[in-house]
Amino acid sequence: MQKRFFWNAVILSGFLTLLGAVHAQDNSFKVGLILPMSGPFAATGKQLESAARLYVAQNGDTVAGRKLVLIVKDDAGSPEVTKRIAQELVVNDKVQVLAGFGLTPLAMATAPVATQSKTPMVVMAAATSIVTEASPYIVRTSFTVPQVVTTLADWASKNNIKRVVSLVTDYAPGVDSEKYFNQRFIANGGQVIETLRVPLRNPDFAPFLQRVRDAKPDALFTFVPAGVGSALMKQFTERGLDKAGIRLIAEGSVTDDDIINGMGDAALGVVTTHHYSAAHKSPANKKFVEAFAKANNGARPNFMAVGAYDGMRVIYEAAKSTKGQGGEPLLNAMKGQVFESPRGPIYIDAQTRDVVQNIYIRRVERVGDQLWNQEIETVTDVKDIGKAR
């Protein structure tokens, strides 16, 4: 009798434990954060994760009465791995949101998973215009390449730059940069005398920069992924392009806040356009930069970080609105959000599910012993030109 009672108690205890676990699982709100935490784009993943965790730390790990669970997975920058992880997160972990995506190919690989499972997907970094068109469940909180490079083309046309060579990394955002910059610059009366593309993996800029020098343009327009700008800048000066009077103008990833101090004097005076600078002067950004540095051993947040931070804000506010419900209601609650970001005012266009925001013209300047992307002009409420129809 005692033995039977003992085993009944054990079984009951196990059942209650299982029931409690199921209840705890049901009462959680899971965000699957897929990032390149290893490989050549690990710095991107680190910025994204750090900012997402900062938002959770500042705003609590409970949303709509449910425990917020952030599940971080490393895709090493491989689209095949990204897609597999997304499938596992949806099927096994039953996440309410897929998020992250450090590069366009990673976001594009995941889009079918989001569509098939009806899981909202928050793109915090990838910037090719077409990304949001890959799935009706995608919302973007980063930026689009056309937003940035068309603004730069307009600035160049007004600042005595008549002839340029275009040099971009040969993958989707680079091709977007080339297309939209060149179109706008030519429409403004400028001349693109040569277009060059370098490989994404292990690029050697030297032979391409020699061709730029031989072409003798007024300026080199360039786009390379975040983290690669240091190598480009180093070879630009080693090849003497600066001394030959060739100006360097770039999409803002080139002078990434995360690595700009390692570029040295070669970066001084370089003009870029982007949606965020750590030097942006606002109370919200001051608080963000200080908190990020405190949580990350003095590191400076870059544009990837602000995309993740704002992405978590969009997720939190949508979850509050739906009382933790996922799927279509959660997606709809993400659309149309308007708020003050550390980057400035932004909103999520309800029709395109893309971010509308200010774009800043910045010049690299030394302040004290550090280099900063100092904002010199602001263009307000810029939409993605590919969708601004």
Structure in words:
The protein is an alpha/beta fold and 389 residues long. The chain contains eleven helices and 15 strands. Strand 14 and strand 15 form a beta hairpin. Helix 5 (145-157) packs parallel to helix 6 and helix 10 crosses helix 11 (327-334).
Put simply, the count of helices is 11
Number of E-type strands: 15
Helix/strand structural class? alpha/beta
- Contiguous uncertain segments of 5+ residues: 1-24
Radius of gyration: 23 Å
| Main pleated-sheet profile | 9 strands, mixed
Average pLDDT level: 92
Distance between the termini: 79 Å
Oligomeric composition of the shown chains: single chain
| Relative helix content | 40-55%
Summarize the structure.
By secondary structure, this protein is α/β, with parallel strands linked by helices.
List keywords for this structure.
single chain, 389 residues, alpha/beta, nine-stranded mixed beta sheet, six-stranded mixed beta sheet, 11 helices, 41% helix, globular, disordered N terminus
Task: Give the helices and strands, then pairings.
Layout: H1 2-26, E1 28-35, H2 42-59, E2 62-63, E3 66-74, H3 79-91, E4 97-100, H4 104-117, E5 121-123, E6 138-140, H5 145-157, E7 163-169, H6 172-187, E8 191-198, H7 206-215, E9 219-223, H8 229-238, E10 247-251, E11 271-274, H9 283-295, H10 303-322, H11 327-334, E12 338-341, E13 344-348, E14 355-367, E15 370-382
Parallel strand pairs: 1-3, 1-4, 4-5, 5-6, 7-8, 7-9, 9-10, 10-11
Antiparallel strand pairs: 2-3, 11-14, 12-13, 13-14, 14-15
Helix pairs in contact: 2-10, 3-4, 5-6, 10-11
